[in-house]
Design goal:
The protein is of the alpha/beta class. The chain has three domains: 1-80 and 158-169 and 183-211, Rossmann fold (3-Layer(aba) Sandwich), CATH 3.40.50; 88-155, no CATH class; 228-306, Alpha-Beta Plaits. It has eleven helices and 14 strands. The strands form three sheets. It has a six-stranded mixed β-sheet with strand order 6-7-8-3-9-10. Helix 3 (96-106) packs across helix 4 (111-124) and helix 5 (140-152) packs parallel to helix 6. The longest helix is centred in the middle third of the chain and has 15 residues, at 170-184. The chain is elongated, with a radius of gyration of 25 Å.
């Protein structure tokens, strides 16, 4: 994946009175990436999104879209942004094709290229069967597709989607997720969502904001590492003394969950799995279960925004 940055935010801050809604936030979004942007209500997520789309000026900091300064050259920079607000900005009295033709004109697409741009957006968003129907008569899933179509019709460098699957049924959610994956092949995507499993399914990188500050900005793999707990669940065909298991290198504490099932708490840098397997074979412990425990993404999210340790 190319590491060319299509969006660069540097030291963004925004105050409302004396309250810092966003406090010195910096990040980049690279070509071909889907970046999940998460945060609890009131964390500064919406304020950041509004600044990135040029709808709200930062008090401090800089935003560059495809190399163009958004504050110095807003019109040029905005031409490289596609935006889907949480409530899609649709004219429901128009047909899908009429609306997208209007959006093509708004985005300054040359008259000779407008029809091609409209047809391409309709095809990419799976709107061919409803192109001549009134938007107001479409299901919410199809209306969401129209909203995405207007965001990509001018082939922007960066597409910003705010809660794109909100209020959809499971089938519609699956279809929109597939559409987002397809869009990411040609654009950079920032995805704001409250649905944590969606992040795992769609995103390459995750940014979590809390109290106006980024508390996590790393790959999905790194987030998954945070989900690993320093505990193992083990079970044997017959009872085994917890004291024997406590003698394994790195094991700090053993919980007896039943007469044959135990939870081993170990030091993160001293995973006892290999030693446990060796003892199980050499001493005939009849090991029937060996399962690393994982925290849920929700647990990790809460840990990061609360700056607390997770109890295991």
């Amino acid at each position: 994946m190319s590491q060319f940055s299509l969006l660069e935010a540097s030291q963004l801050s925004r105050y409302f009175g004396s309250q810092a809604a966003v406090d010195n936030v910096s990040f980049t979004v690279n070509k071909g990436e889907v970046v999940g942007f998460l945060g609890p209500n009131g964390a500064g997520k919406s304020t950041t999104m509004r600044m990135l789309t040029g709808n709200l000026a930062p008090d401090h900091g800089q935003i560059r879209i495809n190399g163009i300064d958004l504050l110095d050259n807003p019109r040029q920079a905005k031409a490289h942004i596609g935006y889907l607000p949480e409530t899609p900005p649709l004219y429901k009295e128009l047909t899908v094709k009429e609306f997208l033709q209007f959006c093509a004109r708004l985005n300054g697409i040359d008259k000779k290229q407008r029809q091609t741009a409209v047809d391409t957006a309709i095809e990419r968003c799976g709107l061919g069967q409803v192109a001549k129907r009134l938007i107001g008569n479409l299901s919410k899933g199809y209306q969401q597709r129209v909203g995405i179509a207007q965001a990509i019709i001018h082939s922007p460098a960066v597409v910003i989607l705010d809660e794109p699957t909100s209020g959809l049924d499971p089938i519609q959610i699956r279809e929109i997720r597939q559409l987002i994956r397809d869009i990411a092949n040609e654009h950079s995507v920032i995805l704001s969502t409250h649905i944590l499993p969606e992040v795992q399914m769609l995103c390459d990188r995750v940014q979590i904001i809390s109290q106006g500050q980024l508390v996590f900005n790393d790959s999905l793999d790194k987030l998954s590492q945070n989900m690993l707990a320093s505990t193992l669940i083990v079970e044997f065909a017959q009872a085994l003394s917890p004291a024997i298991l406590s003698q394994l290198t790195g094991v700090e504490h053993v919980d007896a969950l039943s007469t044959t099932r135990y939870r081993l708490h170990y030091l993160p840098e001293q995973n006892p799995t290999q030693q446990l397997l060796q003892h199980a074979v050499s001493e005939n412990w009849q090991l029937t279960t060996l399962m690393p425990e994982q925290h849920s993404l929700e647990d990790v999210f809460m840990k990061l925004i609360q700056k607390e340790d997770i109890d295991v």
